[in-house]
């Protein structure tokens, strides 16, 4: 019997395994795929970022290099090589996880796992025992009942990351993070893309200003966008798919070579046998857990995309970095430590270009909670560094408490804000005021100056450069 069995080797599972080993636990990690890393490393975060970067390089060469005085004759696109590079990045990253498992003495077992008792897991024809079991099986794409996946014309994000050729036309159902990222990849490569979104705007879980700004940015790529539009069905033939949708006063149809369904993800828990142990799941397959990530069975824990912590204010965002943080907190708690995770300080990022990033409360949330707040904003078009880089789209917005000046939320769209958001996270973790950020010296010229200026705007509206 080992100390801990972990089911799922994604960013939650493999991080939990490493931290448990560091704490002296004996660990067995079970993975149903042939490679470690879960959705994120194999068919999610890593391959999508590889394609986002490659497609943005091509788009820059095709549309922006000339303004820098760089001339390219007969610019070409080798899509096969682009996909090969993507796979090389995935393979290299996955092999790094293999190395880490060996380094920390973690036993890895490949196969489909089922929890058969509070301290036992069945994998194929063997039964493994542990003092504790941690479920970190992640999630899978959610299909639309009216538009079921077929892997050929109607795709999930998994198939969209491994297409053999660039489609001439594509409909993306869903204007969330996955939808807008993959829409931007193929639009840059020449695909005629249409996004259909049920909500009032794109990335509707984020601040409304970000969604509005992103919509303008994507339209510059030639992407057609239909919001407040409900998809009612899809018909498929040998060459095309036809999406039917309903708007306020009309019905529309959109034909495309492929349809990407990106309406969200659902927890992958169905095959685990949890109900036999008295562990219930909600309608999205998520497992209710306590603030220490325990299920109703005391020896079984869960983290990442599979959990629902609604009873204690857990924000159920399906984020790789959130799963990793939960992994560390969960395992350290098992070891008798007293770690802490502030869910309000977990950032979200959309890897379009310009990038979108945010942490903390949105304006809508502050209004709903009747919190008196101030808002400061600084556009990148007023940034010297952004103008030098020809990257003037976007802004940074800082929201603060009207009486205390404590930072409550920071929302960004612009160049490299996926990296810049960590400065905002640091400020919020230490409960900084906007004045604190405004008093810090930012190097010039940098994109980071925009955060300082937005903080200045939030403190009695005194930015220097606008």
Can you walk through the features of this model?
The model has no long low-confidence stretch (mean pLDDT about 95). With about 475 residues, the protein is an alpha/beta fold. The strands form 6 sheets. Strands 1, 2, 3, 4, 5, 6 and 18 form a 7-stranded mixed β-sheet that branches. Helix 3 packs antiparallel against helix 4 and helix 3 runs parallel beside helix 6. The protein is globular and about 65 Å long. Helices cover about 30% and strands about 25% of the residues. The termini are far apart. It contains 13 helices and 24 strands.
Quick recap:
This protein is α/β, with parallel strands linked by helices and 466 residues long.
User: Biggest β-sheet, characterized?
Assistant: 7 strands, mixed
How many whole angstroms does the radius of gyration measure?
A: 23 Å
The residue-averaged pLDDT reads 96
Distance between the termini: 65 Å
Helix content: 25-40%
**How many beta strands in the DSSP annotation?**
24
Question: What is the helix tally?
Answer: 13
Structural class: alpha/beta
Shape by Cα distribution: globular
What low-confidence regions span 5 or more consecutive residues with pLDDT below 50? none
Percent range for β-strand residues: 15-25%
Detail the topology: elements first, then pairings:
Elements: E1 2-7, H1 13-22, E2 27-31, H2 38-43, H3 45-63, H4 79-103, E3 107-110, E4 113-117, E5 120-123, E6 126-135, E7 139-141, E8 154-155, H5 157-160, E9 169-173, H6 177-188, E10 192-196, H7 208-220, E11 224-226, E12 230-236, E13 241-246, E14 251-256, E15 258-261, E16 265-267, E17 287-288, E18 300-302, E19 307-308, H8 320-334, E20 348-350, E21 355-360, H9 363-368, E22 373-379, H10 384-388, E23 395-401, E24 407-414, H11 417-429, H12 434-439, H13 449-458
């Amino acid at each position: 019997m080992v100390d801990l069995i972990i089911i799922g080797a994604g960013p939650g599972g493999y991080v939990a395994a490493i931290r448990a080993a560091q704490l002296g636990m004996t660990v067995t990690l079970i993975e149903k795929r042939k490679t470690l890393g879960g959705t994120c490393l194999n068919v999610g975060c890593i391959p999508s970022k590889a394609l986002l970067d490659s497609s943005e390089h091509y788009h820059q060469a095709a549309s922006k290099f000339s303004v820098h005085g760089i001339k390219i004759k007969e610019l070409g696109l080798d899509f096969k090589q682009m996909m090969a590079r993507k796979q090389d990045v995935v393979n290299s990253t996955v092999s790094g996880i293999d190395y880490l498992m060996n380094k920390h003495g973690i036993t890895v077992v490949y196969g489909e796992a089922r929890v058969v008792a509070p301290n036992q897991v069945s994998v194929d024809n063997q039964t493994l025992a542990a003092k504790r079991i941690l479920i970190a099986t992640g999630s899978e794409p959610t299909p639309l009942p009216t538009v079921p996946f077929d892997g050929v014309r109607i795709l999930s994000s998994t198939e969209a990351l491994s297409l053999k050729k660039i489609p001439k036309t594509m409909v993306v159902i869903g204007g969330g993070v996955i939808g807008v990222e993959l829409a931007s990849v193929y639009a840059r490569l020449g695909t005629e893309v249409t996004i259909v979104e049920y909500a009032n705007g794109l990335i509707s879980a984020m601040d409304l200003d970000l969604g509005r700004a992103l919509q303008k940015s994507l339209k510059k790529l030639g992407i057609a966008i239909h919001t407040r539009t409900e998809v009612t069905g899809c018909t498929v033939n040998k060459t095309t798919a036809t999406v039917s949708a309903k708007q306020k006063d009309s019905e529309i149809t959109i034909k495309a070579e492929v349809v990407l369904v990106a309406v969200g993800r659902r927890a992958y828990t169905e095959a685990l046998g949890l109900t036999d142990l008295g562990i219930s799941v909600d309608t999205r397959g998520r497992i209710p857990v306590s603030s220490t990530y325990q299920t109703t069975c005391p020896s079984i824990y869960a983290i990442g995309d599979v959990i629902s912590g609604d009873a204690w204010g857990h924000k159920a965002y399906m984020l790789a970095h959130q799963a990793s943080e939960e992994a560390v907190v969960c395992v350290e708690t098992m070891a008798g430590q007293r770690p802490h995770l502030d869910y309000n300080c977990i950032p979200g990022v959309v890897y379009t270009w310009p990038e979108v990033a945010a942490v903390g409360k949105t304006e809508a949330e502050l209004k709903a909670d009747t919190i008196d707040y101030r808002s400061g904003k600084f556009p990148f078009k007023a940034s010297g560094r952004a103008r030098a880089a020809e990257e003037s789209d976007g802004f940074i917005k800082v929201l603060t408490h009207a009486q205390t000046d404590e930072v409550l939320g920071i929302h960004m769209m612009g160049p490299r804000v996926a990296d810049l958001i960590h400065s905002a996270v640091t400020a919020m973790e230490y409960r900084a005021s906007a004045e604190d950020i405004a008093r810090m010296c930012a190097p010039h010229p940098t994109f980071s100056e925009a955060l300082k200026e937005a903080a200045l705007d939030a403190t009695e509206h005194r930015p220097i450069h606008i």
